């Protein structure tokens, strides 16, 4: 195509003029190494979205549960639906606040890619196993970056593997934590972060969270709020559908202020956030809405999340969490043994190492083996599993054991 024609088309597609003073401009997008993008008309954050949704790690969302595990019910929220809901919510927020909605979408769709099977319960178990094997702390935020920037193989001949996403997208993923309660928030640095800042925060994730990670962009902050907005009411609806709780159990003050259905809760939270943030330099809630949201989160933990983890298996008389921990430990031990014995026909080689490594196993398996870090490969393997695949591998290993 004629270069002049390409440039004309680029100019027509420029969307910086639609982005307000708090948004990240497409022209500000920063990659670790320059892409060969001649003739590519897509804006940089739009390309990030495409790379994310075509990655193998993204495909595994489909069989990862959100809150309720090992339940055959097509109406229950899975991780794949959750990230789409977050994406929809943050695009609504970004549209009104004149943020870069492509960047909002990229962060939203990638933010949970590092989740292990069985959600936050699995994350806690995998973290405990990590310490037993002298590994650094396990956090799904950092594991998301590990998949997106190190383990995926879009550019195998470049200095770094991974998808070569923009700094702004990776920062938003690393700093997305929707479990933290904040009434309002604004970017940490006026002039943004450097790659050095990002690497420092990433490494710190393995060092017991000494740095308070705050996104470099309003888009990243919007995703952080959208995460909570997306799951708080949806988890209640799932719990009611499964007869885990009753709607009348929702605290009266929460029902009065936020509503008693997911639709009402989402609408109330979004409208309050937009009203508060529209003419402000922070994104956040009014005090009344924020206090009601904190109370609703406490209710969810008390009546849903904590109770789910303590369900007793009547045949063994141990809790669900204890039973699950045994499964994680069995998979970890046998997978580690297969690596040590170079059992190339084992699941960890066939379904993990061969996907990531080169033909001679030298850039991943042998490199980590030479550094006595084989447990890290096992952790990557387990963290990348869907719930369904986790159970399949456990059944195969249980028979071996």
For this structure, the quaternary state is: single chain
**Stretches with pLDDT under 50, minimum 5 residues:** none
Number of helices: 18
The share of residues in extended strands comes to under 5%
**Helical percentage:** 55-70%
As a whole number of angstroms, the C-alpha radius of gyration is 22 Å
CATH topology of the largest domain: Hypothetical protein af1432
The beta-strand count equals 4
Q: According to CATH, what is the class of the largest domain?
A: Mainly Alpha
Alpha-carbon distance between the two ends: 61 Å
How would you describe the overall organization of this protein?
This protein is mainly α. It has 2 domains: 3-309, Hypothetical protein af1432, CATH 1.10.3210; 313-400, no CATH class. Helix content is 57%, strand content 2%. It is built from 18 helices and 4 strands. The chain has helices at 3-13, 44-53, 56-59, 79-97, 101-110, 119-132, 140-151, 167-174, 195-204, 218-241, 252-257, 262-277, 287-309, 320-340, 347-356, 365-370, 374-383, 387-400; strands at 184-185, 283-284, 312-313, 318-319. The strands form 2 sheets. A two-stranded antiparallel ribbon has the order 1-2. A hairpin with a 4-residue loop joins strand 3 and strand 4. Helix 6 (119-132) crosses helix 14 (320-340). It starts with a helix and ends with a helix.
List strands and helices in order, with pairings.
Blueprint: H1 3-13, H2 44-53, H3 56-59, H4 79-97, H5 101-110, H6 119-132, H7 140-151, H8 167-174, E1 184-185, H9 195-204, H10 218-241, H11 252-257, H12 262-277, E2 283-284, H13 287-309, E3 312-313, E4 318-319, H14 320-340, H15 347-356, H16 365-370, H17 374-383, H18 387-400
Antiparallel strand pairs: 1-2, 3-4
Helix pairs in contact: 2-5, 4-5, 4-10, 4-12, 5-8, 5-10, 6-14, 8-9, 8-10, 10-12, 10-13, 14-17, 14-18, 15-17
């Amino acid at each position: 195509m004629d270069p002049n024609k390409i440039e004309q088309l680029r100019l027509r597609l420029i969307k910086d003029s639609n982005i307000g003073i708090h948004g990240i401009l497409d022209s500000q997008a920063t990659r670790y190494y320059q892409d060969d993008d001649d003739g590519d008309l897509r804006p940089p954050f739009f390309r990030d979205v495409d790379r994310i949704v075509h990655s193998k790690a993204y495909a595994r969302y489909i069989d990862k549960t959100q809150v309720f595990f090992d339940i055959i019910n097509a109406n229950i929220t899975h991780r794949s639906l959750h990230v789409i809901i977050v994406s929809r919510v943050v695009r609504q927020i970004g549209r009104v606040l004149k943020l870069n909605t492509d960047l909002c979408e990229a962060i939203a769709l990638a933010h949970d890619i590092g989740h292990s099977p069985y959600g936050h319960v699995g994350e806690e178990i995998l973290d405990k196993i990590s310490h037993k094997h002298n590994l650094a702390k396990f956090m799904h935020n950092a594991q998301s970056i590990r998949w997106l920037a190190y383990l995926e193989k879009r550019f195998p001949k470049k200095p770094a593997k991974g998808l070569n996403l923009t700094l702004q997208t990776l920062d938003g993923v690393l700093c997305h934590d929707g479990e933290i309660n904040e009434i309002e928030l604004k970017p940490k640095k006026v002039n943004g972060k450097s790659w050095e800042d990002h690497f420092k925060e990433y490494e710190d994730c393995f060092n017991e969270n000494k740095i308070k990670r705050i996104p470099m962009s309003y888009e990243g902050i919007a995703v952080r709020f959208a995460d909570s907005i997306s799951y708080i009411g949806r988890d209640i609806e799932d719990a009611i559908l499964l007869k885990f709780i009753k709607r009348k159990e929702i605290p009266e003050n929460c029902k009065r202020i936020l509503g008693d259905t997911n639709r009402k809760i989402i609408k109330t939270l979004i409208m309050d956030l937009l009203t508060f943030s529209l003419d402000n330099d922070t994104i956040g809630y009014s005090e009344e809405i924020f206090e009601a949201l904190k109370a609703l989160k406490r209710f969810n933990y008390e009546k849903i999340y904590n109770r789910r983890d303590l369900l007793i298996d009547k045949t063994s008389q141990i809790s669900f969490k204890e039973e699950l921990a045994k499964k994680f430990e069995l998979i970890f031990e046998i997978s580690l043994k297969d690596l040590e014995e170079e059992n190339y026909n084992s699941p960890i080689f066939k379904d993990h190492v061969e996907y990531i490594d080169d033909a001679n196993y030298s850039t991943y398996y042998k490199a980590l083996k030479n550094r006595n870090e084989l447990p890290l490969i096992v952790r990557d393997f387990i963290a990348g599993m869907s719930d369904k695949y986790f159970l399949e591998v456990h059944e195969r290993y249980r028979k071996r054991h």
